TrEMBL record:
Its EC number is 7.6.2.9. Coiled coil: none annotated. It comes from Candidatus Anaerobutyricum stercoris. Residues 4-238 form the ABC transporter domain. Keywords: ATP-binding, Nucleotide-binding, Transport. GO terms for molecular function: ABC-type quaternary ammonium compound transporting activity; ATP binding; ATP hydrolysis activity. InterPro entries: AAA+_ATPase, ABC_SmlMolc_Importer, ABC_transporter-like_ATP-bd, ABC_transporter-like_CS, P-loop_NTPase. This is ABC-type quaternary amine transporter.
Length: 261
């Protein structure tokens, strides 16, 4: 069953049309990476999933229900949203930030919330000593990890990530990539992950969505994107990565991109 479905969606901000005749089905448990030129509508697509923006026309279904007819609070409880930049509550400690949603869900069961905070800090690789720090006292990479832990702490079925690893160094990025891949494997969560880095898109995705000018260029597993680029846009996008792979065409299947690290 599709966990997310866009049906003939048209989305515009005033006169500015972002997507039109947009159709996409995402299966439960898929890790979809989304890549495409700046302004092509990637963030808008994520925001339509959790109802932050509404399509002008067409339907967005999440777990079979039209988002237009779903209570937004209920919808968002099941959807984690990790975005780039400073999105943490600045007046709350790391612990309080991560505990925010579990607190709402667990009401007075403090022990359960504490356990959730400990578990997720551990999973995203945050030292326990950072618990009582405020966001302004953390590095950019640590802030991003808190953002990811906070999005995951509610145990959502769907995780939306908008360029979550943009502001970190290569090594931290590599370890965050491994962590998110492991979380995906272990929890079966459905992930939509926007990135500007084709290497990252191919490495993390079980499927890659390539967008340009508001339309889908290709939606396929990483191997297929590399083996059989559907358009010139995709071909150009993957060319550099194919060279980096140092493999002849027929051997590309042996490349590191198999949908998981
Ligand atoms: N609130 C808004 N009001 C008007 N136009 C908007 C609004 N949000 C986005 N847009 C426009 O809609 C288009 C798609 O924006 P969107 O943020 O989805 O792009 P994106 O693919 O995420 O880009 P980037 O890679 O730069 O983050 C852009 O042309 C943008 O300028
Ligand atoms: Mg964006």
């Amino acid at each position: 069953m599709s966990i997310i479905e866009f049906k003939n969606v048209r989305m515009a901000y005033g006169e500015k049309v972002v997507v039109e005749n947009f159709n996409l089905s995402i299966e439960k448990g898929e890790f979809v990476t989304i890549i495409g030129s700046s302004g092509c509508g990637k963030t808008t697509i994520l925001k339509m999933v959790n109802g932050l923006v509404r399509p002008v026309d067409g339907n967005v279904l999440v777990e079979g229900r039209d988002t237009r007819e779903t209570d937004l609070t209920m919808l968002r409880r099941n959807i984690g949203y990790a975005i780039q930049g400073s999105v943490l509550f600045p007046h709350m400690t790391v612990e309080k930030n991560i505990a925010y949603v579990p607190n709402l869900l667990n009401k007075r069961d403090k022990k359960r919330t504490e356990q959730a905070v400990e578990k997720w800090m551990n999973i995203v690789g945050l030292e326990d000593s950072l618990r009582s720090r405020f966001p302004s006292e953390l590095s950019g990479g640590q802030q991003q990890r808190v953002g990811i832990a906070r999005a995951l702490a509610a145990s959502p079925d769907i995780l939306l990530m908008d360029e979550p690893f943009g502001a970190v160094d290569e090594i931290t990025r590599g370890s965050l990539q491994e962590e998110i891949s492991r979380i995906h494997r272990e929890t079966g969560i459905t992930v939509l992950f926007v990135t500007h880095d084709i290497g990252e898109a191919l490495k993390l995705g079980t499927k890659v969505l390539v967008m340009d000018g508001g339309s889908i260029q290709q939606f396929a597993p990483p191997r297929e994107i590399l083996h059989a680029p559907a358009t010139d846009y995709v071909r150009k996008l993957v060319e550099k990565e194919r060279r980096r792979c140092h493999l002849p065409e027929e051997k590309l299947g042996d490349c590191e991109y198999s949908g998981a690290i």
